[in-house]
Design brief:
Elements lengths: L3 H4 L2 H14 L12 H6 L1
């Protein structure tokens, strides 16, 4: 199992979000499904 610190790299999540927004031709919405992902991004 990986350590928590490997999953808490918000700069990686922010980079992915930026790439998705740049490539998308329509507005994008992200849905929270467990809470852990929100903690990583913010």
């Amino acid at each position: 199992m990986k350590f928590d610190s490997e999953f808490r790299r918000s700069e990686l999540a922010e980079g992915l979000i930026s790439k998705i927004h740049r490539k998308s031709k329509t507005p994008v919405r992200f849905m929270e499904f467990c809470g852990g992902h929100t903690v990583t991004i913010f």
